[in-house]
Amino acid sequence: MFVDTARIFVKSGDGGDGSVSFRREKYVPFGGPDGGDGGRGGDVILIANSNITTLLDFAYKKKYKAENGGNGSGSKCFGRDGNTLCITVPVGTVIRDINSDRIMADLSHEGDKCIVAKGGKGGRGNVRFATSTRQAPDFAEPGMPGEERYISLELKVLADVGLVGFPNVGKSTILSVVTKARPKIANYHFTTLNPNLGVVDIPKITSFVIADIPGIIEGASEGVGLGIQFLRHIERTRLLIHVVDISGIEGRDPFDDFIKINEELKKYDVKLWDRPQIIAANKADMLYDEQVFEDFKQKVSKLGYDKVFKISAATKQGIDELMKEAARMLSTIPIVDSHISDDEKFVPEEKKFTYKIRKEEDTYIVEGSFVDRLLASVNVNDPDELRYFHKVLKNKGVLDELKSMGIKDGDTVVLNDFQFEYML
C-alpha cells in the first residue's frame, strides 16, 4: 500500500535530575556534597533509507518518544544519557513542523538525517552549587524537559523523468514498455492510483529513473480528481514527457488537453511549468488522419515546444527514439539539490527561561518558566537555599525590575505558590 503523507507526534527524552548527596565515609563524617548531574535525554532523529518506499508504517504508529536521561547519584556519579530514537523514512521525505508550517529538512539522499526533537539537558547535582560561603548546598537542579512537537512527513518520488498527461493516454503502457515495472493497465480513467517508478535501461544510452504520475485533470491544482495528491511527485523531476492521445478516439482534442495540463502545472508551481518537456503523441497506430498529428505539432511548436515524437506504446513505434532524446536532454540538465528558502525553513526557538511581572494593588506577581524552574530546584524553607534563591532573583534582574516598578518595603511578592515580603 502506497502512503505518501503522514502526521506524527515526537517527544525527546527529559533530562535526568541532579542529585542531592553528601559524602559519608568512615573517618569522613562531613565530607561535603557529592551529588552528580543528571543524564541528557535522548534525541529523536529521522534518517533517510532507500530500502523504504512508503510512509505506511506511520499510518499505524503515530507517537514516538525517546528515552529519558538517568538521575544523578552520590559519589559524583552522573546519570546515564537517554538512548537516541532513530526513525527511518523513505529517501525523498520532506519534514515539516506543523505548528509553524515550516520545513525542518528535505531528506533527499541516502543517510540524510534530521534531529526533530532534542533531548533535555540533565540537571546539575548539588556538588555544582558548593561555594566558599555555601559549603553544603541541600538542593540540585531538575532535568530540562525534552522537546515535543507534531510533524508532517511528505514523500516526493525521486525520478529523473516524469510522465504526465490526462488519464488513459498511455503513460502506464509506456512505463511498462521501457522498464521492468508492471503497473496496472486498463482501458478506463484513473487505472493508476499510485506513482510507479522504473529504470530505463536501453542499449547505448545512460540509464535513468522514470515515473508514471497518476492522471492529472483540469482543476487538479484546486483538488479536482486525483492529480492534487500527486503533483508533488513531479517536483523533483528534471524533465517531463507530456503524453497526449493523438488518435482522438475518445473524442478529446490533444492540443486542448496539452494546454490544460500545462495550466495545472503552472497553477501548482510555476517551476513545473518551466521544466523542459518532450511531447509524446501516443496511440499513433490508431491515428485515422496524419494531418491531425501535423496540425498538433505545428500548434505546439508555436508555443516553443519543438520536441514532438509520434509514438505507439502498444506497438513500440518511436519508443526508442523518445527515450534516447530523454537521455540526451538529461545529460544537459544539471542535478540540483532542493533548496529550502529562508521563508520556508524551520528555525527552532531558543529555549529560554523568561518571566513577567504584573502588579495587583500592593502585590507584585512574578510568573513564567523562569519562576517554575527556580522553585523546582530550591527548598525555600531552608535558609541556605533561600539565600541562593534571592541571589538568583538579583542576578536575573527581577529585583531591579521590581524597584523600577515602584515596589516598597512591606509589599508582597508572589511567585507561584510562594510569597514573601519585600525588604531593601
From TrEMBL:
<dbReference type="GO" id="GO:0003924">
    <property type="term" value="F:GTPase activity"/>
</dbReference>
<keyword id="KW-0547">Nucleotide-binding</keyword>
<dbReference type="GO" id="GO:0005737">
    <property type="term" value="C:cytoplasm"/>
</dbReference>
<feature type="domain" description="OCT">
    <location>
        <begin position="345"/>
        <end position="424"/>
    </location>
</feature>
<keyword id="KW-0378">Hydrolase</keyword>
<feature type="binding site">
    <location>
        <begin position="282"/>
        <end position="285"/>
    </location>
    <ligand>
        <name>GTP</name>
    </ligand>
</feature>
<dbReference type="InterPro" id="IPR006074">
    <property type="entry name" value="GTP1-OBG_CS"/>
</dbReference>
<feature type="binding site">
    <location>
        <position position="192"/>
    </location>
    <ligand>
        <name>Mg(2+)</name>
    </ligand>
</feature>
<comment type="subunit">
    <text>Monomer.</text>
</comment>
<feature type="binding site">
    <location>
        <begin position="212"/>
        <end position="215"/>
    </location>
    <ligand>
        <name>GTP</name>
    </ligand>
</feature>
<protein>
    <recommendedName>
        <fullName>GTPase Obg</fullName>
        <ecNumber>3.6.5.-</ecNumber>
    </recommendedName>
</protein>
<feature type="binding site">
    <location>
        <begin position="190"/>
        <end position="194"/>
    </location>
    <ligand>
        <name>GTP</name>
    </ligand>
</feature>
<dbReference type="Pfam" id="PF09269">
    <property type="entry name" value="DUF1967"/>
</dbReference>
<dbReference type="InterPro" id="IPR006073">
    <property type="entry name" value="GTP-bd"/>
</dbReference>
<feature type="binding site">
    <location>
        <begin position="312"/>
        <end position="314"/>
    </location>
    <ligand>
        <name>GTP</name>
    </ligand>
</feature>
<keyword id="KW-0963">Cytoplasm</keyword>
<feature type="binding site">
    <location>
        <position position="172"/>
    </location>
    <ligand>
        <name>Mg(2+)</name>
    </ligand>
</feature>
<comment type="similarity">
    <text>Belongs to the TRAFAC class OBG-HflX-like GTPase superfamily. OBG GTPase family.</text>
</comment>
<dbReference type="InterPro" id="IPR015349">
    <property type="entry name" value="OCT_dom"/>
</dbReference>
<dbReference type="InterPro" id="IPR006169">
    <property type="entry name" value="GTP1_OBG_dom"/>
</dbReference>
<feature type="binding site">
    <location>
        <begin position="165"/>
        <end position="172"/>
    </location>
    <ligand>
        <name>GTP</name>
    </ligand>
</feature>
<dbReference type="InterPro" id="IPR036346">
    <property type="entry name" value="GTP-bd_prot_GTP1/OBG_C_sf"/>
</dbReference>
<dbReference type="InterPro" id="IPR036726">
    <property type="entry name" value="GTP1_OBG_dom_sf"/>
</dbReference>
<feature type="domain" description="OBG-type G">
    <location>
        <begin position="159"/>
        <end position="331"/>
    </location>
</feature>
<dbReference type="InterPro" id="IPR045086">
    <property type="entry name" value="OBG_GTPase"/>
</dbReference>
<dbReference type="InterPro" id="IPR027417">
    <property type="entry name" value="P-loop_NTPase"/>
</dbReference>
<dbReference type="InterPro" id="IPR031167">
    <property type="entry name" value="G_OBG"/>
</dbReference>
<dbReference type="GO" id="GO:0000287">
    <property type="term" value="F:magnesium ion binding"/>
</dbReference>
<keyword id="KW-0460">Magnesium</keyword>
<feature type="domain" description="Obg">
    <location>
        <begin position="1"/>
        <end position="158"/>
    </location>
</feature>
<comment type="function">
    <text>An essential GTPase which binds GTP, GDP and possibly (p)ppGpp with moderate affinity, with high nucleotide exchange rates and a fairly low GTP hydrolysis rate. Plays a role in control of the cell cycle, stress response, ribosome biogenesis and in those bacteria that undergo differentiation, in morphogenesis control.</text>
</comment>
<dbReference type="Pfam" id="PF01926">
    <property type="entry name" value="MMR_HSR1"/>
</dbReference>
<dbReference type="InterPro" id="IPR005225">
    <property type="entry name" value="Small_GTP-bd"/>
</dbReference>
<dbReference type="InterPro" id="IPR014100">
    <property type="entry name" value="GTP-bd_Obg/CgtA"/>
</dbReference>
<keyword id="KW-0479">Metal-binding</keyword>
<dbReference type="Pfam" id="PF01018">
    <property type="entry name" value="GTP1_OBG"/>
</dbReference>
<keyword id="KW-0342">GTP-binding</keyword>
<dbReference type="GO" id="GO:0005525">
    <property type="term" value="F:GTP binding"/>
</dbReference>
<dbReference type="GO" id="GO:0042254">
    <property type="term" value="P:ribosome biogenesis"/>
</dbReference>
